[in-house]
Specification:
Elements (H helix, E strand, L loop, with lengths): L2 H31 L6 H8 L3 H7 L3 H15 L2 H10 L3 H29 L4 H29 L7 H11 L2 H10 L4 H16 L2 H4 L3
Length: about 210
């Protein structure tokens, strides 16, 4: 009897590894060819698996994209960043951790998200995925700013909701990718500038002043 759980765990690990391989193979294809230009057969060929394996392991092309975005979210270490912000007493550090979280996501998959942008006008599935991503980003930044507001307070005249909106816009895919791709800023430069700007816009003057 004891051998059975071990076997099923091994099977689960192999299934998870296959799924991960499929998502990692799909990532550059979506980024380079766009959603419409990538077929399930392309992904299968790149991952070295049968087309049927993709359907049984992940699902349709739309489901592969959704799973890929979730996979990238996990890699960005969302839970780990939340744990860090809970332990800091420095509001400027809390702002920086939030910026770093969006940076991790942009560094890993900004190109995939831009591929979604290009497909959204002609692909209802893409427009839906994009809207879902935007809504997750908005909700995440709102929760982040609410936490900073509760623990440290925001500058006069800035509500947690308005602060969340400001954080969401400044740390959006468009902001990161324009500064990086169009203007040639390094990821570090963008992180520093966004942190300084958000501290100035959101925190009371005495909290964001440099000592």
């Amino acid at each position: 009897m004891a051998a059975e759980p071990v076997k099923s765990t091994l099977r689960e690990r192999q299934a998870a590894a296959t799924r991960r391989d499929i998502l990692e193979a799909a990532r550059p294809l979506f980024a380079e060819r766009g959603y419409a230009g990538t077929s399930i057969a392309d992904i299968a060929s790149s991952a070295g698996v049968a087309v049927q394996t993709i359907y049984s392991s992940v699902g349709s092309k739309r489901e592969v994209l959704g799973a890929l975005l979730d996979h990238i979210d996990e890699q960005a270490g969302v839970a780990e960043h939340w744990a860090r912000v809970r332990t800091t007493d420095d509001p400027r550090e809390a702002v920086r951790i939030g910026v770093q979280l969006t940076r991790g996501f942009q560094e890993r998959c900004g190109d995939v998200v831009l591929a979604l942008h290009s497909a959204a006008p002609v692909e209802p599935a893409m427009a839906e995925a994009l809207a879902d991503g935007r809504s997750r980003h908005r909700n995440g930044t709102r929760r982040w700013v609410e936490r900073i507001a509760r623990k440290h307070g925001l500058r006069e005249g800035v509500s947690a909701r308005r602060g969340g909106d400001i954080f969401a816009v400044l740390t959006s895919t468009e902001s990161w990718q324009q500064l990086h791709a169009d203007h040639g800023w390094s990821w570090d430069q963008i992180e520093d500038w966004l942190t300084a700007t958000l501290c100035q816009l959101l925190l009371p003057p005495e909290t964001h002043a440099h000592h």
